[in-house]
Each structure stands twice: as C-alpha cells, then as structure tokens.
Design goal:
Strands 1, 2, 3, 4, 5, 6 and 7 form a seven-stranded mixed sheet that branches. This protein has two domains: about 5-210, Endonuclease III, domain 1; about 225-345, Nucleoside Triphosphate Pyrophosphohydrolase (Alpha-Beta Complex). The protein is globular. By secondary structure, the chain is of the alpha+beta class. The longest helix is centred in the N-terminal third of the chain and has 16 residues, at about 80-95. The protein has helices at about 5-15, 25-35, 40-55, 60-65, 65-75, 80-95, 105-110, 115-125, 135-145, 155-165, 170-185, 205-210, 265-280, 335-350, and strands at about 225-235, 240-245, 255, 260, 280-295, 300-310, 320-325. It starts with a helix and ends with a helix. The structure holds a DNA duplex.
Length: about 350
DNA sequence: AATTCGTGGAG
DNA sequence: TCTCCAAGAAT
C-alpha cells in the first residue's frame, strides 16, 4: 500500500471525534484552526463550542463588542488571535459581502490567516490539495525521511514531499488531518508508539533508531524572571482594574494594576513608587499573597497588596481604561490569567 | 530573521 | 521542579 493509503486507512479506523470534524461551514472550520494554533485539541473544545453558541456566523462575530470577543477567548491565550479573527470577520462583512473569499490570495490577506490556516481551511473545507505543515507534520515527516538538519531548515524538503503525496489523494482534508492526528497520537515528541504506526515500514528514523534525535531542534534561550508588585486598590467596597493597550502582550485584556520591582528594592518601596508614578496616593496596605506565572518569553512573581485609596486618577501608558468594580464583577470582564491568580487569593483571604 | 505573542499538559 | 511543546502569525 501507498503512504497516503496507509495513513488515511489508519485515520478512518481511529474515527476520532471533534466538534469541528465533518463540519462544512468554512467559518467554523476556520475558527477551529485559529483556536488550535499552538493550543492542544482538548483545551480548544470547550472554547470552540462556547464561541459557536455566542457567535454562530461571520456576521455575529463581526458585530460583537471587543469585550465579548475577548471574554469568549479568556484563558485561551495568544489573544491577538481573537482580535485578528474578528478584524477579519468585519473585513469580510464590509469588503466581501459577508462571504469568505474562496480565492487563496484574497483569503491570505485576512488578518491572522497564514500559510497553515489557508491550507487547513481550503483542504478541509474546499477539498484543495494544499498540505498543512504544523508542528505535528514537521515531526512526522522529519522522522519518516530521516531529516538530520535543524527542523526549520528542512521545511522545503518536507513541503516538496507532501506536495507529491497529496496529489493522488481523494480527500486532501482527510490526508492533512490524518497527518496531524498521527503526530499527536502516535508519532509523539517523546516515546512515539512506532509499533502501531501505519507508516513505520519506510520510516527512516524508526528503522535506524533515530526517533529520539529527530526532529533536531535548537535549544531555547532562558527566559528572564521579574518580580512585580500588584495592587488591589480599595475604595469603599470597590477595587480598581485596568484595560491594557490593544497592542502587544495581553492586548485589550483587563488586569490588576502593578509594576516591576527594581533590584535591591523592597516590596513596599516598589508599591509606593509604582502607584506614585501612576498618580494615585495610597495608605496602609496588607499583603494578599504571591502568584507566579509563566509567559512564553518571561516569567513573573506577583506580590499582591491590598491598599486603601486616598486620591488621584490612575494614569498609565500601558492602559486605556480604568474601572472601579465590586468583588464578583470581575466575571464580566476579560481578565488575564496572572491577575486571576491573585484575585483567587483575594477571595480566599477576604470573604 | 529573530522575536514576540499565553496557557496548560506531559514526562 | 524543569523542560519541552502544542492544528502559527505578525512584526
């Protein structure tokens, strides 16, 4: 049997169910692929279902408020995906009469649509013979062909191999999803189950015992670590939350205000300095707790302090809106994980 | 071209 | 605890 025949036979036999499998609505296929970027299937499923309930089509997504969009994405990470997806939906409503462009060049112009999304949506939704290349596929093919250069310098070899293999496939979407399922379930990063792999016969890495070495990857740089003070600024029964700038890290998300602690600086000194720079004066404070959080390129250690507000309006170049809210109201706002960790400690200690 | 974008799970 | 990395794209 041929490579693709073995692969697709295995795929059909697995019959793995996902909410978007078998879906024909391009909008839903597209949404699933956006959510699945750098995110595991299991994580995406509840977010996908919730999103489809709230925004069942392009128009509803385009008409939603930014707050609703980010709230539906809260906790999923890489929030620019949500903002870009809505931007693209608005673009489709205004410039494409509400219909997703079926032309590759036009679809690629949409925000958040790259080579992967194009290939995934057009192969699964339209039957186009465009191979997808994601982390799974890179791993599977680099092992299958025994590619011993750094994985990202082998992309042309991987693509030319797939371009040939997908030509004689009847259902390109199945071929692509089979490749990704195989990488996720069998050809795993560690301890691949080569014994049950449908394409192990011609796999170079398997035959030569190289599955532990391939794919070859560069070592990641160490990420910096920062200490921060975070304020739960109390004013009567309310506390302050701030909306981050729409660009950059956690764009558009709400958070508890705070800032970095300088080296050799005490927590209380940092607390006074940061909020003095924000333009608000505080009095007595009490320690709430510490919450660590790891981002992709740095990590933080948040030291939370509950403070009593005296006067001043918070002005920060990092934020565009400020709001005093009562405890419990935070569920109405899209708030990032790091702030949620401290809010959880607030509940434990002060209810 | 290298960096910047979250969060959670696996081992 | 530590490291890797997941249906990548934008800058």
């Amino acid at each position: 049997m041929k490579f693709s025949t073995r692969l697709i036979k295995w795929y059909k036999n697995q019959n793995i169910l996902m909410p978007w499998r078998g879906e024909k609505d391009l909008y839903k296929i597209w949404l699933s692929e956006v959510m699945l970027q750098q995110t595991q299937v299991k994580t995406v499923i509840p977010y996908y279902k919730n999103w489809i309930n709230k925004f069942p089509n392009i128009k509803s997504a385009a008409l939603a408020s930014e707050k609703e969009i980010l709230k539906a994405w809260e906790g999923l990470g890489y929030y620019s995906r949500a903002r870009n997806f809505q931007h693209a939906c608005k673009n489709i409503v205004s410039d494409y009469n509400g219909e997703i462009p079926l032309n590759e060049i036009e679809f690629l112009k949409l925000k958040g649509v790259g080579e992967y999304i194009l290939s995934a949506v057009f192969s699964i939704g339209l039957g186009k013979k465009l191979p997808v290349i994601d982390g799974n596929v890179k791993r599977v093919i680099s092992r299958y062909l025994g590619l011993t250069n750094e994985i990202n310098s082998e992309l042309k070899n991987i693509k030319s191999f797939l371009d040939i293999k997908i030509k004689d496939v009847k259902i390109p979407g199945d071929f692509n999803q089979a490749m990704m399922d195989l990488g996720r379930i069998v050809c795993k990063p560690k301890n691949p189950n080569c014994d049950i792999c449908p394409i192990n016969i011609n796999c170079v890495a398997f035959k030569q015992g190289l599955t532990q070495l391939i794919p070859i990857k560069l070592k990641k740089k160490q990420i910096p670590h920062y200490k921060m003070i975070i304020g739960i600024i109390q004013n009567n029964d309310k506390f302050l939350i701030c909306k981050r700038n729409s660009d950059g890290l956690l764009g558009g998300m709400w958070e508890l205000p705070g800032g970095k602690i300088k080296k050799q600086e005490s927590n209380s000194t940092a607390l006074n300095r940061v909020f003095s720079d924000f333009g608000i004066s505080l009095k007595s404070n009490s320690y709430i707790g510490t919450a660590n959080h790891i981002y992709s390129h740095f990590s933080i250690e948040q030291h939370g302090y509950q403070c009593d507000y005296i006067k001043g309006n918070l002005i920060s170049k990092n934020h565009t809106e400020y709001k005093w809210i009562s405890k419990g109201e935070e569920v109405l706002f899209p708030i990032h994980k790091a702030s949620h960790k401290l809010l959880a400690k607030l509940k434990v200690n002060y209810t």
